[in-house]
Amino acid sequence: MSEPIEGESGGRRGEPAPRRRRAHTRTRDLERYAGLFAKRTQAMRSSAMRDLMAITARPEVISLAGGLPDTSTFPAESFAAQMTRIAHESSAEALQYGPTEGFEETKACIAQVMAAEGMSPDPDDLIVTTGGQQAIDLITKTLVDPGDAVICEAPTYPGAVPTFCSYEADVHQVSTDDDGMRIDDLEELLAGLAREGRRPKFVYSVPSFQNPAGVTLSEERRRRLVELAREHEMLIVEDNPYGLLRYDGDPQPTLYSLDGGDYVLYLGTLSKILSPGIRIGWVAAPPPVLEKIGLGKQAADLCTSTLSQYFVHEYFGESRWRAYISDLVEIYRERRDAMLDALERHFPPQADWTRPEGGLFLWATLPDYIDTTDLLAKALRENVAFVPGRSAYVDGVSGASSMRLNFSASSEAELREGIRRIGHVISEQIQLYETITGEHRVAAPPDEDEEPGGEVVPLPKR
Amino acid sequence: MKVAVLKGGSSLEREVSLRSAARVEDAIAALGHEALGIDAGPDLVGRLREERPDVVFIALHGPGGEDGTVQELLEILDLPYSGPGVAACALCMDKVAAKHEMRTAGIPTPDWAAFNATAFRELGAGETLEEIEARLGFPLVVKPARQGSSLGVEFAADRDGVPEALVAAFSYDDRVLLERYVKGRELAVSVLDGEALPIVEAIPRKEDFFNFAARYEIGRTEYVCPAELAEDDAGRVRDLARRTYETLGCSGFARVDLILGDSGPEVLEVNAIPGLTDTSLFPMAAEAAGIDFNGLVERILESARERPASEATLPA
Fold this sequence. Notes:
- The complex is a heterodimer of chains A (462) and B (316).
- The longest helix of chain A is centred in the last third of the chain and has 26 residues, at 321-346.
- Mean pLDDT of chain A is 88; it is low at 1-13 and 440-462.
- Chain A is of the alpha/beta class.
- Chain A is globular and about 70 Å long.
- In chain A, helix 3 crosses helix 11 (306-317), helix 5 (131-143) crosses helix 10 and helix 12 packs parallel to helix 14 (412-437).
- Chain A has 14 helices and 14 strands.
- Chain B is of the alpha+beta class and 316 residues long.
- Chain B is built from eleven helices and 13 strands.
- In chain B, the strands form three sheets. In chain B, strands 8, 9, 10, 11, 12 and 13 form a six-stranded antiparallel beta sheet that branches.
- In chain B, strand 1 (2-7), helix 1 and strand 2 form a beta-alpha-beta unit.
- In chain B, helix 1 packs across helix 11 (293-305).
- The radius of gyration of chain B is 19 Å and the shape is globular.
- The interface between A and B is large, with 41 and 51 residues.
């Protein structure tokens, strides 16, 4: 059903190829379908917002909305050579089904990626999934009955929201600040749940360069979070797509390495360090959990794309994967800096934003009378797009005055221009509000030539 | 017969338009005509000159396609097209202009006040809000003047909610209206060639009552067609819809949205190019009248070709 925002691809939208369509749906069929829909489908995102997001894919729009890595830097010749080798040497196998848990060779590649962040999982603890997204889905499917409590950050990864909703989880979001999830708030929430005799099934977290907020969980909080998992006998789902994309500061230990893999289920992906198009992700989990996830995987799609896994083997066989990540880090660091610089120049002083040390996103928060879903409509008229903050909240209401901005998928010039346009529409709305309410403070954006005056402010506690 | 289907465009309702057009193109092919889908972009005029269709089906929604702009181009190119003409489209798209017209013609429509952003920025319109609020009462509804679907439409429950609702509505248009909220049943009357089709009633789920976005989703809003109304109520509603259609100068088809409150039906707005998707109300009403989708498209094409002399504003 849902078109996750992450899937926004800026794809062409020209003439569709001629195709045969089924006869149209009649009214009584509609009513019949409506009567058949599962209750959980009612929790899914509104079609109005989906339609709005679809427009962001128009080619003339500078889209800071996607979650896309820049795949244009991947050397096409190597790609051609690798795929040719597969065709010549392993055609029959690469076109065949594979094992549900993934090939041993793929797991060996995954082990290399995890080792780069100080982890050494037993290959038997790994299952290869169709992207990290499937891993979130399988874990939720495995662990959550309708009404079970699940905890995640506020804001949380927008792509996880429809997953949690579709399994009818009772989702609780814990506020974040510059050091990631507020563990004191988490403890309070756990105590509250305990008073009701409830224990959450898991805490879902993107601890490093969080999507969407861009913040990173501090080491102290990581240690405490892992302790809490043990104390409460609950699982932590550590989603770490961006860990190797660090632009400054020191690497933090993963929750998985701090815990040793007892209570932490680790999700990884090659989407951001190689390609999202190959759909290769994975879960590292203790064997009893992994077995259930494997059953779910079998039901979902039997196995992850064999062809993609063969490509991964070839790619890692050339041993240049770390060098490619270093290239990406250089590119993305400059783009992040360009975005931060543009924000200081063009966003009004009433706006705050985070300053990520890595990853693909930052999170900007505007005065609470501005709803960024409406603002997106105005921004689209200026041919620029972002993700409205609401999509990072399960209630669909909170986060209304925030937005997620992506800096990995656009050139520095596009980033600067995109931020300038967004800054302009924000300033217009602020000025309008102030004239309506009679606050005559002038809210014009800072002059182009002026020294950057914007201050980096920690994520508001909400 | 070659039929160009204009679709997409750059309005916020692009996706709805693409879904409407897909169905229309299928119907045209099923009727044995040649369907030529054209995404309304910078090459629109060039494509139309090159293809010389016999008739143009406009399946565009929102500003640009539904406000008379495209219709004007088609007049200049001398191509017959579906739906209302330039003047009617311009009126229907602008809720404020349409309400003035209705009021003059004695068609009941909820009280309102309308402003553009300049009035607030330069003329101190903010100082009149208190008076407007006192006259309209709460809750009141804030809408952008020119925007389709439910985009930017907000309830303001009290004074504090008004500035925020205005800022939201101003995101979609430079002109907004504050409208008296009328409690009642939400009805839509589709009019085809001046004839009112069976009435559709939209019944939102309780929890979605104040969420206009949910009005367009099956599963969140229940649609009943024909609406279960007392016979004289249904007659009054359909008469009013027909009169509104005529008053605004519509031709071909249009959909009139009304509220049936304690003091009788009141017209909220008229959609010059109502949605034609699988979940749209206009095809639903046609079907209740025994006209299937292909038949509906055929009727619309016929009336497009029979349109009386164009409203050309240029000398021949």
